[in-house]
Amino acid sequence: MSPLRFAPDNPHGLILYDHPSSPCARRVRITLLEKGLGWETQIIDLSRLEQRHPAYLALNPNGFVPTLAHGERLIYESNVITEYLDDAFPELPLYPREPWQRVQVKMWQAAELAMAKDYRPLMYQRVMGPMVRLTRSLDEALAAARRSTNDPADLAWEEKVWNLAVVTPEEEAQLVDRLWKWLANLEAHLVGREFLVAERFTQAEVSAYPRVAMYPFVQLPITANRFPNVTRWMKALAKRPSFARTLSTMDAQLRSLSRTSLLPWLGRTLRKPDPSLIERLRLRMVRRMAQRNLRASRAAAERARGTDAIRQPHVAAIAPATKPVRRPPAPPAALLAQPLTLYDDPASPHARRIRMLLREKSLSWQTVAVPLHRLAHKAAAYLAINPLGEVPALRHGERVIYDSQLIAEYLDRTFVGNPLYPDDAYELAEVRMWLALEAGTHKEFRPLYYLHVVRPTLREAGIDEAGLDAVVPAGVHPSHVQWLRDTLRGTPRFDSSEQMARAIISRKLERLAERLAERDYLVGDTCTMADLGWFTRADMLPRLGIPLPAAVARWAERIGARPSARESLPA
Length: 571
Prior knowledge:
- With 571 residues, the chain is mainly α.
- The protein folds into two domains: 99-290, Up-down Bundle (Glutathione S-transferase Yfyf (Class Pi), Chain A, domain 2); 332-571, Up-down Bundle (Glutathione S-transferase Yfyf (Class Pi), Chain A, domain 2), CATH 1.20.1050.
- Helices cover 54% and strands 6% of the residues.
- The protein has helices spanning 23-34, 54-57, 78-88, 99-135, 138-146, 152-162, 169-189, 203-212, 228-238, 241-245, 249-258, 262-271, 277-305, 333-336, 349-360, 380-383, 404-414, 425-439, 442-460, 468-471, 478-489, 498-516, 529-538, 550-560, 563-567, and strands at 14-18, 40-43, 67-70, 73-76, 340-344, 366-369, 393-396, 399-402.
- The strands form two sheets. Strands 2-1-3-4 form a four-stranded mixed beta sheet. Strands 6-5-7-8 form a four-stranded mixed beta sheet.
- It starts with 13 loop residues before the first strand and ends with a helix.
- The mean pLDDT is 91.
């Protein structure tokens, strides 16, 4: 392959693996523009599952866009990329240096990621599914997918999308309800505010806006009557050059399409076993238009990326300099003296890693029990503390931090003691990438966890289906109660199957094993949060029927021998 010649406005050799309609990729494009950085683009065709192609998985083992190449460095997961860009190019910062403001920005990022778990299936059910079914037969859709992947889970997903069976009608209604509630929280937060955090434009806007702007695509229109503050906030952001320039042609078309009744009509009509003559004629006309637009979009994508299907980064082109991360100012003594309270469940791997970190840093704390098997984390009282409805959460004086990764970074930046995050910008990004890979197992881990951990706990407590109403707090969303009921029946919902879920997690363990074959820790020469995060997940996997590769088992034994690991086990 001939040496890559970067454009004059890209002296840092940045390559963004991108898709025009990905909100995650868009937030990286916005960040690059806000920071005045040039880059090259490599389009990854999501409609052909190119994000699951072995060549791309070698760059990003989570199999999503975006990925950023910075010379010899590879960074994946959009929030990791944007924070790396802020650390590596500290001019025009988008993340505040002050730890509490930074955590608030990252809590908005975590909130957006939580919302995305509801948005994504609805997008595939209401938009992607009808468009794929309109433009391809099932055989054609599967043939296109097989050009990138032969993974049974990927092909099963493609078939589910084509069959418009990503979610049931009942699940679809629950997703809509939760998405509206998320937007209502955003509306309430913006009362009297121009920005989300610290009364200035930050990465919180960059992270939240792209997917909120896509609400209308899934037939959830954001109107000024219902959401005046969100509407005002979005209009102001849309005027920024970085936001305007990153609105893709595809998204502009979808935005126009969302103002019509076509997509809802398509969804209803394509489900019918025997559409009427008029409906068949209209389908034929719409199909021709859609296929023509698809061919034009694909041709544009091919021109944008050149002849290489998935271009590999040229590691010799640029060698980025090592750069230390800007450290925040020392916190005041009065803040350090404030008590710590951990909202915890002993069986949660995410809570356990925070208990380990607290012990690693010799900190004291109080515990508030939030029993997952009783859905205490979905009750109104706990949602007022952590609107994501997950454990753990941490209270530090008057401050409340949620999401285990944010809690860990906040504690590490605020308190001295054994540091668990490196000072080097790229090593710090590596820690976050390993944690992102670990977080990428959540979709498969969750039903296995409920089946093999929560279900036995319910049985040991003598709780059956008939007794659920007596132990679940009043007001918990019916979808969560149904999930627990399905757990008791032994039928929690898998995207594919229990067997495929284990296989997907096992493949990520193989990546872990490759890394640990000749090293003691995941990043650098000391234990970091990457080790604590993966250890608390890996330590539970044998209970779920997932054996650990030899290298991972040796590493887990070494991490498990640390006092913090032994002392963090449930009593």
